[in-house]
Protein backbone atom coordinates (compact mmCIF):
# COMPACT_ATOMS: atom_id res chain seq x y z
CA UNK A 1 0.00 0.00 0.00
CA UNK A 2 1.38 3.38 -1.02
CA UNK A 3 1.92 5.86 1.84
CA UNK A 4 -0.26 8.96 1.87
CA UNK A 5 1.70 12.15 1.04
CA UNK A 6 0.41 15.47 2.45
CA UNK A 7 1.95 18.95 2.33
CA UNK A 8 3.10 20.47 5.65
CA UNK A 9 0.48 23.22 5.67
CA UNK A 10 -2.28 20.60 5.83
CA UNK A 11 -0.89 19.02 9.04
CA UNK A 12 -2.28 19.98 12.44
CA UNK A 13 -0.16 21.16 15.39
CA UNK A 14 0.29 17.72 16.95
CA UNK A 15 1.55 16.22 13.69
CA UNK A 16 4.00 19.09 13.19
CA UNK A 17 5.33 18.75 16.75
CA UNK A 18 6.00 15.09 16.11
CA UNK A 19 8.03 16.01 13.03
CA UNK A 20 10.01 18.97 14.43
CA UNK A 21 12.54 17.01 16.54
CA UNK A 22 13.67 15.16 13.42
CA UNK A 23 14.27 18.33 11.40
CA UNK A 24 18.01 19.13 11.28
CA UNK A 25 19.22 22.23 13.08
CA UNK A 26 20.46 23.82 9.85
CA UNK A 27 16.83 23.93 8.67
CA UNK A 28 15.40 25.45 11.86
CA UNK A 29 18.23 27.90 12.56
CA UNK A 30 19.84 29.95 9.76
CA UNK A 31 23.02 30.44 11.84
CA UNK A 32 23.89 26.76 11.39
CA UNK A 33 25.34 25.38 8.17
CA UNK A 34 24.65 22.03 6.56
CA UNK A 35 27.71 19.81 6.81
CA UNK A 36 26.99 16.64 4.87
CA UNK A 37 30.64 16.57 3.78
CA UNK A 38 31.77 16.50 7.41
CA UNK A 39 29.38 13.66 8.24
CA UNK A 40 30.76 11.72 5.29
CA UNK A 41 34.27 12.38 6.55
CA UNK A 42 33.35 11.11 10.04
CA UNK A 43 31.73 8.02 8.51
CA UNK A 44 34.91 7.07 6.61
CA UNK A 45 37.12 7.82 9.61
CA UNK A 46 34.87 6.15 12.21
CA UNK A 47 36.61 2.74 12.32
CA UNK A 48 39.89 4.50 13.10
CA UNK A 49 38.31 7.02 15.46
CA UNK A 50 36.65 4.12 17.27
CA UNK A 51 40.00 2.48 18.03
CA UNK A 52 41.69 5.77 18.96
CA UNK A 53 38.90 6.88 21.31
CA UNK A 54 38.65 3.45 22.94
CA UNK A 55 42.41 3.43 23.54
CA UNK A 56 42.09 6.82 25.20
CA UNK A 57 39.17 5.59 27.35
CA UNK A 58 41.23 2.60 28.51
CA UNK A 59 44.22 4.76 29.45
CA UNK A 60 42.03 7.27 31.31
CA UNK A 61 40.02 4.68 33.25
CA UNK A 62 42.91 2.44 34.33
CA UNK A 63 44.03 4.69 37.23
CA UNK A 64 40.39 5.21 38.22
CA UNK A 65 39.73 1.46 38.39
CA UNK A 66 43.01 0.92 40.26
CA UNK A 67 41.76 3.05 43.14
CA UNK A 68 38.99 0.51 43.88
CA UNK A 69 41.14 -2.62 43.79
CA UNK A 70 41.26 -4.05 47.32
CA UNK A 71 38.25 -2.06 48.47
CA UNK A 72 34.84 -3.65 49.03
CA UNK A 73 36.41 -7.07 48.29
CA UNK A 74 37.00 -6.01 44.65
CA UNK A 75 39.76 -8.02 43.00
CA UNK A 76 39.70 -6.55 39.49
CA UNK A 77 37.81 -4.19 37.17
CA UNK A 78 38.44 -4.48 33.46
CA UNK A 79 36.80 -4.12 30.06
CA UNK A 80 35.73 -7.39 28.50
CA UNK A 81 34.69 -5.55 25.34
CA UNK A 82 35.12 -1.91 24.40
CA UNK A 83 33.91 -0.71 21.03
CA UNK A 84 31.86 2.30 19.99
CA UNK A 85 30.07 0.25 17.36
CA UNK A 86 29.54 0.77 13.66
CA UNK A 87 27.20 3.79 13.78
CA UNK A 88 29.09 7.13 13.87
CA UNK A 89 27.68 10.30 15.43
CA UNK A 90 25.87 12.71 13.13
CA UNK A 91 26.38 16.45 13.04
CA UNK A 92 23.01 18.11 12.46
CA UNK A 93 24.47 21.56 11.88
CA UNK A 94 27.60 23.61 12.44
CA UNK A 95 27.85 27.26 13.43
CA UNK A 96 31.12 29.16 13.01
CA UNK A 97 31.38 32.08 15.42
CA UNK A 98 33.29 35.23 14.56
CA UNK A 99 35.39 36.76 17.33
CA UNK A 100 38.01 39.49 17.48
CA UNK A 101 40.52 37.11 19.05
CA UNK A 102 43.18 35.04 17.32
CA UNK A 103 41.05 31.89 17.22
CA UNK A 104 38.44 29.87 15.34
CA UNK A 105 35.24 28.99 17.24
CA UNK A 106 32.81 26.30 16.06
CA UNK A 107 29.57 25.05 17.63
CA UNK A 108 28.35 21.74 16.17
CA UNK A 109 25.07 20.06 17.13
CA UNK A 110 25.95 16.38 17.66
CA UNK A 111 23.54 13.46 17.89
CA UNK A 112 24.62 9.88 18.35
CA UNK A 113 22.29 6.89 18.47
CA UNK A 114 25.02 4.27 18.53
CA UNK A 115 25.38 0.53 18.89
CA UNK A 116 28.44 0.36 21.15
CA UNK A 117 29.66 -2.89 22.64
CA UNK A 118 30.87 -1.86 26.08
CA UNK A 119 31.12 -4.70 28.59
CA UNK A 120 32.73 -4.17 32.00
CA UNK A 121 33.70 -7.12 34.21
CA UNK A 122 33.86 -6.75 37.98
CA UNK A 123 35.59 -9.55 39.91
CA UNK A 124 34.24 -9.60 43.45
CA UNK A 125 35.45 -12.49 45.71
CA UNK A 126 34.59 -15.58 43.70
CA UNK A 127 31.89 -13.83 41.66
CA UNK A 128 32.22 -12.44 38.15
CA UNK A 129 29.75 -9.60 37.57
CA UNK A 130 29.21 -8.39 34.02
CA UNK A 131 27.81 -4.95 33.20
CA UNK A 132 26.85 -4.04 29.66
CA UNK A 133 25.89 -0.65 28.21
CA UNK A 134 23.05 -0.80 25.65
CA UNK A 135 20.87 1.54 23.60
CA UNK A 136 23.16 4.56 23.95
CA UNK A 137 21.82 7.94 22.73
CA UNK A 138 23.61 11.26 23.19
CA UNK A 139 22.74 14.81 22.19
CA UNK A 140 25.38 17.46 22.91
CA UNK A 141 26.10 21.04 21.87
CA UNK A 142 29.86 21.54 22.34
CA UNK A 143 31.88 24.66 21.61
CA UNK A 144 35.18 23.80 19.90
CA UNK A 145 37.85 26.50 19.79
CA UNK A 146 41.09 26.26 17.83
CA UNK A 147 43.56 28.67 19.41
CA UNK A 148 45.83 30.41 19.09
CA UNK A 149 46.15 30.44 15.32
CA UNK A 150 49.83 30.21 14.40
CA UNK A 151 51.91 30.05 11.17
CA UNK A 152 52.94 26.43 11.84
CA UNK A 153 50.99 23.43 10.56
CA UNK A 154 48.26 22.53 11.47
CA UNK A 155 48.02 26.30 12.16
CA UNK A 156 46.52 26.07 15.67
CA UNK A 157 48.29 25.27 18.92
CA UNK A 158 45.45 23.73 20.94
CA UNK A 159 41.84 22.54 20.82
CA UNK A 160 39.63 23.83 23.63
CA UNK A 161 36.27 22.09 24.17
CA UNK A 162 33.39 23.09 26.42
CA UNK A 163 29.67 22.29 26.60
CA UNK A 164 27.15 25.09 26.09
CA UNK A 165 24.38 23.04 27.70
CA UNK A 166 24.17 19.94 29.85
CA UNK A 167 24.23 16.95 27.48
CA UNK A 168 21.23 14.68 26.98
CA UNK A 169 22.30 11.09 27.60
CA UNK A 170 20.04 8.03 27.39
CA UNK A 171 21.16 4.42 27.78
CA UNK A 172 20.34 1.10 29.31
CA UNK A 173 22.52 -1.12 31.50
CA UNK A 174 22.25 -4.87 32.00
CA UNK A 175 23.78 -6.85 34.84
CA UNK A 176 23.67 -10.63 35.18
CA UNK A 177 21.27 -10.71 32.25
CA UNK A 178 18.75 -8.25 33.73
CA UNK A 179 18.12 -4.56 33.00
CA UNK A 180 19.02 -2.74 36.22
CA UNK A 181 17.59 0.49 34.80
CA UNK A 182 14.14 -1.02 35.37
CA UNK A 183 14.64 -0.54 39.12
CA UNK A 184 12.25 2.27 40.17
CA UNK A 185 14.00 5.64 40.54
CA UNK A 186 17.44 4.35 39.47
CA UNK A 187 17.21 5.57 35.86
CA UNK A 188 16.42 9.16 36.85
CA UNK A 189 19.17 9.08 39.49
CA UNK A 190 21.80 7.86 37.02
CA UNK A 191 20.75 10.38 34.36
CA UNK A 192 20.89 13.26 36.81
CA UNK A 193 24.26 12.16 38.18
CA UNK A 194 25.85 11.86 34.73
CA UNK A 195 24.62 15.29 33.67
CA UNK A 196 25.85 16.85 36.88
CA UNK A 197 29.29 15.23 36.71
CA UNK A 198 29.86 16.04 33.02
CA UNK A 199 28.60 19.60 33.50
CA UNK A 200 30.90 20.16 36.49
CA UNK A 201 33.88 19.20 34.33
CA UNK A 202 33.21 20.78 30.96
CA UNK A 203 30.13 23.02 31.18
CA UNK A 204 31.19 26.47 29.97
CA UNK A 205 33.22 28.37 31.25
CA UNK A 206 35.05 25.19 32.33
CA UNK A 207 36.98 23.75 29.40
CA UNK A 208 38.98 20.75 28.27
CA UNK A 209 42.19 21.82 26.56
CA UNK A 210 43.99 19.41 24.22
CA UNK A 211 47.45 20.67 23.15
CA UNK A 212 48.35 20.06 19.51
CA UNK A 213 51.69 21.81 19.10
CA UNK A 214 54.57 22.18 21.51
CA UNK A 215 54.38 25.64 23.06
CA UNK A 216 58.10 26.19 22.44
CA UNK A 217 57.69 25.78 18.67
CA UNK A 218 54.86 28.30 18.29
CA UNK A 219 55.59 30.77 21.07
CA UNK A 220 55.57 34.37 19.87
CA UNK A 221 57.72 36.29 22.29
CA UNK A 222 55.99 39.32 23.72
CA UNK A 223 57.65 42.26 25.48
CA UNK A 224 58.36 41.47 29.13
CA UNK A 225 60.17 44.62 30.20
CA UNK A 226 62.18 47.71 29.33
CA UNK A 227 65.96 48.13 29.40
CA UNK A 228 66.97 51.64 30.44
CA UNK A 229 70.36 52.50 28.93
CA UNK A 230 72.41 55.58 29.78
CA UNK A 231 75.46 56.12 27.57
CA UNK A 232 77.67 58.11 29.96
CA UNK A 233 81.06 58.61 28.33
CA UNK A 234 83.96 57.06 26.43
CA UNK A 235 87.67 57.52 27.04
CA UNK A 236 90.93 57.21 25.07
CA UNK A 237 89.28 56.36 21.76
CA UNK A 238 91.30 55.61 18.63
CA UNK A 239 92.41 58.46 16.36
CA UNK A 240 90.87 58.01 12.92
CA UNK A 241 90.92 61.52 11.40
CA UNK A 242 93.85 63.15 9.65
CA UNK A 243 94.08 65.78 12.39
CA UNK A 244 94.65 63.10 15.06
CA UNK A 245 91.15 62.97 16.48
CA UNK A 246 87.73 61.29 15.90
CA UNK A 247 84.02 62.20 15.70
CA UNK A 248 82.53 59.38 17.81
CA UNK A 249 78.96 58.21 18.27
CA UNK A 250 77.43 55.01 19.73
CA UNK A 251 74.96 52.56 18.18
CA UNK A 252 73.06 50.24 20.52
CA UNK A 253 70.58 47.41 19.97
CA UNK A 254 69.37 44.13 21.49
CA UNK A 255 69.86 40.77 19.80
CA UNK A 256 66.72 39.06 18.53
CA UNK A 257 65.15 42.34 17.39
CA UNK A 258 64.54 43.57 13.86
CA UNK A 259 64.12 47.19 14.97
CA UNK A 260 66.73 49.72 13.77
CA UNK A 261 69.56 50.46 16.18
CA UNK A 262 69.43 53.58 18.34
CA UNK A 263 72.19 56.18 18.08
CA UNK A 264 73.71 58.84 20.28
CA UNK A 265 74.65 62.29 19.02
CA UNK A 266 78.02 62.83 17.30
CA UNK A 267 80.78 64.44 19.35
CA UNK A 268 83.05 66.29 16.94
CA UNK A 269 86.83 66.07 17.41
CA UNK A 270 86.74 64.37 20.78
CA UNK A 271 88.57 61.25 21.99
CA UNK A 272 86.98 61.48 25.46
CA UNK A 273 83.34 62.27 24.66
CA UNK A 274 80.65 62.86 27.29
CA UNK A 275 77.13 61.91 26.17
CA UNK A 276 74.92 61.29 29.24
CA UNK A 277 72.14 60.26 26.84
CA UNK A 278 69.29 57.91 27.83
CA UNK A 279 67.54 55.24 25.74
CA UNK A 280 64.83 52.63 26.27
CA UNK A 281 64.91 49.23 24.59
CA UNK A 282 62.11 46.64 24.59
CA UNK A 283 63.10 43.33 26.20
CA UNK A 284 61.48 40.04 25.14
CA UNK A 285 63.81 37.43 26.65
CA UNK A 286 66.13 38.68 29.40
CA UNK A 287 67.79 35.27 29.70
CA UNK A 288 69.08 35.15 26.12
CA UNK A 289 69.16 38.72 24.79
CA UNK A 290 72.40 40.68 24.70
CA UNK A 291 72.97 44.44 24.48
CA UNK A 292 75.33 45.40 21.63
CA UNK A 293 77.34 48.62 21.99
CA UNK A 294 79.26 49.77 18.91
CA UNK A 295 81.34 52.95 18.73
CA UNK A 296 81.95 54.57 15.32
CA UNK A 297 83.88 57.52 13.94
CA UNK A 298 81.54 59.65 11.84
CA UNK A 299 82.77 60.58 8.36
CA UNK A 300 81.07 63.01 6.05
CA UNK A 301 81.99 60.94 2.99
CA UNK A 302 82.20 57.15 2.82
CA UNK A 303 81.66 54.56 5.50
CA UNK A 304 82.06 55.32 9.17
CA UNK A 305 85.12 53.80 10.83
CA UNK A 306 84.61 51.20 13.53
CA UNK A 307 86.30 52.21 16.80
CA UNK A 308 85.26 49.32 19.02
CA UNK A 309 82.42 47.29 20.50
CA UNK A 310 81.21 45.47 23.63
CA UNK A 311 78.41 43.13 24.71
CA UNK A 312 76.37 43.00 27.92
CA UNK A 313 74.16 39.89 28.49
CA UNK A 314 70.89 40.94 30.13
CA UNK A 315 70.95 37.89 32.41
CA UNK A 316 73.77 39.58 34.36
CA UNK A 317 71.39 42.38 35.42
CA UNK A 318 69.30 42.39 38.60
CA UNK A 319 65.76 43.71 37.96
CA UNK A 320 65.15 47.29 39.08
CA UNK A 321 68.80 47.78 40.10
CA UNK A 322 70.96 50.28 38.19
CA UNK A 323 74.41 48.91 37.36
CA UNK A 324 77.34 50.91 35.97
CA UNK A 325 79.67 49.15 33.53
CA UNK A 326 83.16 50.39 32.55
CA UNK A 327 83.90 48.27 29.47
CA UNK A 328 87.10 47.99 27.45
CA UNK A 329 86.32 48.33 23.76
CA UNK A 330 87.21 45.39 21.52
CA UNK A 331 87.66 45.06 17.78
CA UNK A 332 85.28 42.09 17.89
CA UNK A 333 84.13 39.55 20.44
CA UNK A 334 85.93 36.54 18.92
CA UNK A 335 89.49 37.21 20.08
CA UNK A 336 90.65 33.74 19.00
CA UNK A 337 90.33 34.64 15.31
CA UNK A 338 92.70 37.61 15.64
CA UNK A 339 95.12 37.08 18.56
CA UNK A 340 97.63 39.60 17.14
CA UNK A 341 95.22 42.53 17.57
CA UNK A 342 96.00 43.86 21.04
CA UNK A 343 95.61 47.55 20.21
CA UNK A 344 94.11 49.64 23.00
CA UNK A 345 90.75 50.98 21.84
CA UNK A 346 89.68 52.86 24.96
CA UNK A 347 86.66 52.18 27.11
CA UNK A 348 82.99 53.09 27.39
CA UNK A 349 80.90 53.74 30.54
CA UNK A 350 77.19 52.83 30.55
CA UNK A 351 74.45 52.54 33.17
CA UNK A 352 71.86 49.79 32.71
CA UNK A 353 68.55 49.13 34.48
CA UNK A 354 66.17 46.32 33.57
CA UNK A 355 62.54 47.01 34.56
CA UNK A 356 60.21 44.00 34.04
CA UNK A 357 56.53 44.58 33.33
CA UNK A 358 53.97 43.71 35.96
CA UNK A 359 52.35 40.31 35.51
CA UNK A 360 49.30 40.26 33.28
CA UNK A 361 45.99 40.64 35.07
CA UNK A 362 44.59 37.39 33.63
CA UNK A 363 46.37 34.26 34.82
CA UNK A 364 45.53 30.94 33.20
CA UNK A 365 46.66 27.62 34.59
CA UNK A 366 48.06 25.35 31.91
CA UNK A 367 46.88 21.78 31.31
CA UNK A 368 48.31 18.82 33.17
CA UNK A 369 49.35 15.55 31.55
CA UNK A 370 48.40 16.91 28.14
CA UNK A 371 44.78 17.50 29.08
CA UNK A 372 43.24 19.82 31.61
CA UNK A 373 40.49 22.20 32.55
CA UNK A 374 41.26 25.87 32.89
CA UNK A 375 39.51 28.71 34.61
CA UNK A 376 40.26 32.41 34.59
CA UNK A 377 41.20 34.43 37.64
CA UNK A 378 41.73 38.17 37.93
CA UNK A 379 44.43 39.94 39.89
CA UNK A 380 44.14 43.60 39.01
CA UNK A 381 46.63 46.21 40.16
CA UNK A 382 45.41 49.18 42.18
CA UNK A 383 44.46 52.46 40.49
CA UNK A 384 47.51 54.21 41.94
CA UNK A 385 49.74 51.59 40.28
CA UNK A 386 47.75 51.55 37.06
CA UNK A 387 47.70 55.28 36.41
CA UNK A 388 51.32 56.12 37.24
CA UNK A 389 54.74 55.30 35.86
CA UNK A 390 56.22 54.30 32.53
CA UNK A 391 54.87 51.60 30.28
CA UNK A 392 54.61 50.14 26.81
CA UNK A 393 51.73 50.88 24.42
CA UNK A 394 51.40 48.05 21.88
CA UNK A 395 49.19 48.60 18.83
CA UNK A 396 48.32 45.53 16.74
CA UNK A 397 46.69 46.44 13.42
CA UNK A 398 44.95 43.18 12.51
CA UNK A 399 43.20 44.06 9.27
CA UNK A 400 40.34 45.87 7.58
CA UNK A 401 37.13 45.05 5.74
CA UNK A 402 35.27 46.68 2.84
CA UNK A 403 37.84 49.41 2.21
CA UNK A 404 37.44 50.67 -1.32
CA UNK A 405 39.32 53.22 -3.39
CA UNK A 406 38.08 55.03 -6.46
CA UNK A 407 41.12 54.20 -8.60
CA UNK A 408 42.95 51.31 -6.86
CA UNK A 409 42.73 48.98 -3.85
CA UNK A 410 46.24 48.44 -2.46
CA UNK A 411 45.57 49.28 1.20
CA UNK A 412 48.03 49.93 4.02
CA UNK A 413 47.57 51.50 7.46
CA UNK A 414 49.42 54.47 8.97
CA UNK A 415 49.53 54.79 12.78
CA UNK A 416 50.20 58.25 14.23
CA UNK A 417 50.84 58.84 17.94
CA UNK A 418 52.72 61.65 19.69
CA UNK A 419 54.46 62.69 16.51
CA UNK A 420 55.62 59.17 15.60
CA UNK A 421 54.45 57.51 12.39
CA UNK A 422 54.34 53.74 11.78
CA UNK A 423 53.23 52.00 8.57
CA UNK A 424 52.04 48.50 7.77
CA UNK A 425 52.97 46.68 4.60
CA UNK A 426 50.83 47.27 1.52
CA UNK A 427 48.47 44.46 0.43
CA UNK A 428 47.80 44.54 -3.32
CA UNK A 429 44.40 44.26 -4.97
CA UNK A 430 42.13 43.58 -2.00
CA UNK A 431 39.32 45.25 -0.08
CA UNK A 432 39.84 43.05 2.98
CA UNK A 433 43.54 43.30 3.89
CA UNK A 434 45.08 41.31 6.76
CA UNK A 435 48.20 43.03 8.09
CA UNK A 436 48.74 41.52 11.57
CA UNK A 437 51.49 44.04 12.34
CA UNK A 438 52.36 45.33 15.80
CA UNK A 439 53.84 48.71 16.70
CA UNK A 440 55.15 49.77 20.09
CA UNK A 441 55.51 53.10 21.85
CA UNK A 442 57.45 53.47 25.11
CA UNK A 443 55.89 56.15 27.32
CA UNK A 444 56.90 57.84 30.55
CA UNK A 445 53.31 58.06 31.76
CA UNK A 446 49.92 56.46 30.92
CA UNK A 447 48.23 57.92 27.81
CA UNK A 448 45.09 59.04 29.65
CA UNK A 449 42.67 61.15 27.57
CA UNK A 450 44.89 60.78 24.49
CA UNK A 451 43.94 59.54 21.04
CA UNK A 452 45.79 57.38 18.58
CA UNK A 453 45.09 58.15 14.91
CA UNK A 454 45.03 55.47 12.20
CA UNK A 455 44.69 56.23 8.49
CA UNK A 456 43.96 53.60 5.84
CA UNK A 457 45.56 54.51 2.53
CA UNK A 458 45.92 52.97 -0.91
CA UNK A 459 48.93 53.40 -3.15
CA UNK A 460 49.21 52.81 -6.86
CA UNK A 461 51.94 50.30 -7.70
CA UNK A 462 52.94 52.08 -10.92
CA UNK A 463 54.00 55.65 -11.65
CA UNK A 464 51.14 58.13 -11.41
CA UNK A 465 50.52 61.76 -10.47
CA UNK A 466 47.77 60.65 -8.07
CA UNK A 467 49.50 57.61 -6.60
CA UNK A 468 47.95 57.75 -3.09
CA UNK A 469 44.33 57.59 -2.09
CA UNK A 470 42.71 58.11 1.32
CA UNK A 471 40.33 55.26 2.30
CA UNK A 472 39.26 56.34 5.82
CA UNK A 473 40.52 56.96 9.32
CA UNK A 474 39.73 56.38 12.98
CA UNK A 475 40.68 58.11 16.23
CA UNK A 476 40.78 55.78 19.26
CA UNK A 477 40.71 57.19 22.78
CA UNK A 478 43.23 55.38 24.99
CA UNK A 479 41.57 55.96 28.37
CA UNK A 480 39.81 52.58 28.26
CA UNK A 481 43.11 50.90 27.38
CA UNK A 482 44.75 52.37 30.50
CA UNK A 483 41.82 51.34 32.71
CA UNK A 484 41.42 47.81 31.32
CA UNK A 485 44.93 47.03 30.09
CA UNK A 486 43.63 45.93 26.68
CA UNK A 487 40.99 46.59 24.05
CA UNK A 488 40.30 44.45 20.98
CA UNK A 489 37.63 45.91 18.72
CA UNK A 490 36.53 46.69 15.21
CA UNK A 491 35.94 50.35 14.35
CA UNK A 492 34.01 51.92 11.48
CA UNK A 493 36.30 54.05 9.37
CA UNK A 494 35.34 57.72 9.09
CA UNK A 495 34.97 58.97 5.50
CA UNK A 496 34.48 55.40 4.30
CA UNK A 497 31.19 53.97 3.10
CA UNK A 498 31.43 50.53 4.74
CA UNK A 499 35.05 50.27 5.83
CA UNK A 500 35.95 48.66 9.17
CA UNK A 501 39.37 48.31 10.83
CA UNK A 502 40.31 45.74 13.49
CA UNK A 503 42.75 47.00 16.14
CA UNK A 504 44.07 45.48 19.38
CA UNK A 505 45.81 47.83 21.84
CA UNK A 506 47.60 46.91 25.08
CA UNK A 507 49.00 49.06 27.90
CA UNK A 508 51.64 47.30 30.02
CA UNK A 509 53.26 49.02 33.00
CA UNK A 510 56.67 48.48 34.58
Describe this structure in words.
The chain is mainly β and 510 residues long. 14% of the residues lie in helices and 43% in strands. The strands form 6 sheets. Strands 1, 2, 3, 4, 5, 6, 7, 8, 9 and 10 form a 10-stranded antiparallel beta sheet that branches. 17% of the residues are buried. One of its GO terms (biological process) is lipid transport. This is Synaptotagmin-3 isoform X1.
How would you describe this structure in keywords?
ten-stranded antiparallel sheet, 28 strands, 510 residues, metal ion binding, mainly beta, lipid-binding
Basic shape: elongated
Question: What's the number of extended β-strand segments?
Answer: 28
Residues in helix, % = 10-25%
Give the class from helix and strand content and strand pairing. mainly beta
Q: What fraction strand?
A: 35-45%
Give a short account of the largest sheet: 10 strands, antiparallel
Radius of gyration: 33 Å
Uncertain stretches of 5 or more adjacent residues: 361-386
Oligomer: single chain
Number of helices: 7
Mean pLDDT across all amino acids? 83
Rounded to the nearest angstrom, the distance between the terminal CA atoms is 82 Å
